[in-house]
């Protein structure tokens, strides 16, 4: 058993509503009968497939593979072979997971993985699953191994450990152990609590009882690269340019002669999604920018100016402030806010399409962190953290078909794609802004007055961050208008004003984040300006919660 338990998601890059799915790469024409035989399409791209068994680190494996310029898709463990036929699979990696292989109903290993003869790397539960499937034995361990451990190699001359020392720190998380190796396998490393911490068949199948994908295994990247290049013989030629070319072809195939609208927010994700779809279908795309009244100070004007200046895309600007605020009146539950905003967006787009004639597709800039937090993939290992309006907040009777070309990309990958598409830095490197906007940064009921107070405070945060020249060092920096009021003194008068929280974090991909250790002078400058310039606020606090246990947004 791997004791990591959180969420994971499927690897569809472009998702459509209903039962239709469009893969990132072109599918082979014609249906296939389900079976245990793995086949590839002609000229299919090289890829490493990660089978997800429910570990919270599963997507990190995919990320590490892509960082080595090898394309990777993560799919649920029970994905049938024909669903991978659009790829030229070079290897499989089996993720960790919370189950024990000897339990009834535990996830199993698809027969096509073994039948393919391709290289396999089993990580934690993945190693135990390899052992169990191939005739070895896995049993509960008297002592679980969780956290830092020291791995000692007993066979140094092995391609998996090329360039690595004979002893190295790793991060482990398991409560089971291998007590009998499968026929043909032998151990090549051990730790204090795991006599068999790494096993191999001497050819191309490996099992490791620790997590190389996490930063707590300092040389884990090297081990993963060794598997990719020394064992699986990957070419390492996947780039943002490849992604653009292949996605454009897939979008063309999906859309055909259909008409497309894009929900443009002005953020990085929707901008890159719009540019990508525009490259594929050109004049068939119309972007609709909705001012929902939940944007930051002056943002609507900046978005219109930026897109008309840099992108030759048809753009409609719709002021729907009243419509959104009516839907949010007296709503205090954050999930309800997200769902109402999501439904209002869709209804508005449906209304807009009536003046455009027939419209078939809606483009959204959904990215992987949105998906995994909404846990919308159907994988029973996934746990919903919160709905995102562009994932879990859409109405079930929506008449438009979704295209989400960035659905399986991390933010830094989205930005590389944006640069490949020629978008300006001011657009590509903007800090993320949530789809529901300031509605989830106003705690409690959203009103015009509260939004105005928050906009002024938030503008001060951004202004001071940019003055201090740390904007690009931060993942996000913003203000949250809490529903707490407190007594204060301003001048000779007693005040009773709002408390604002500063949320300023650093992150690599938003799957995890840490609060930013900003200079005290900078925090003081922000606090002084807010309490002096926004009269409704008399107290500023700094949120020093990491993710996990918290999320970046408060709601």
What does this structure look like?
- The structure is a single chain.
- Helices cover 30% and strands 25% of the residues.
- It has helices at residues 58-67, 111-115, 125-133, 220-231, 240-255, 268-281, 299-310, 321-328, 334-356, 368-374, 411-420, 425-428, 448-467, 520-533, and strands at 14-15, 21-22, 46-52, 72-76, 88-94, 120-123, 137-153, 167-180, 186-191, 194-200, 205-208, 260-264, 285-291, 314-319, 361-363, 401-403, 476-490, 493-507, 513-515, 537-542.
- The protein is an alpha/beta fold and 555 residues long.
- The chain is globular and about 80 Å long.
- Strand 5, helix 2 and strand 6 form a beta-alpha-beta unit.
- Helix 5 packs across helix 6, helix 5 packs across helix 11 and helix 13 packs antiparallel against helix 14.
- It has a nine-stranded mixed beta sheet, with helices on both faces.
- It has 14 helices and 20 strands.
Q: What is the secondary structure topology, with strand pairs?
A:
Elements: E1 14-15, E2 21-22, E3 46-52, H1 58-67, E4 72-76, E5 88-94, H2 111-115, E6 120-123, H3 125-133, E7 137-153, E8 167-180, E9 186-191, E10 194-200, E11 205-208, H4 220-231, H5 240-255, E12 260-264, H6 268-281, E13 285-291, H7 299-310, E14 314-319, H8 321-328, H9 334-356, E15 361-363, H10 368-374, E16 401-403, H11 411-420, H12 425-428, H13 448-467, E17 476-490, E18 493-507, E19 513-515, H14 520-533, E20 537-542
Parallel strand pairs: 3-4, 3-5, 5-6, 6-11, 12-13, 12-15, 13-14, 15-16, 18-20
Antiparallel strand pairs: 1-2, 7-8, 7-9, 9-10, 10-11, 17-18, 18-19
Helix pairs in contact: 5-6, 5-11, 6-11, 8-9, 13-14
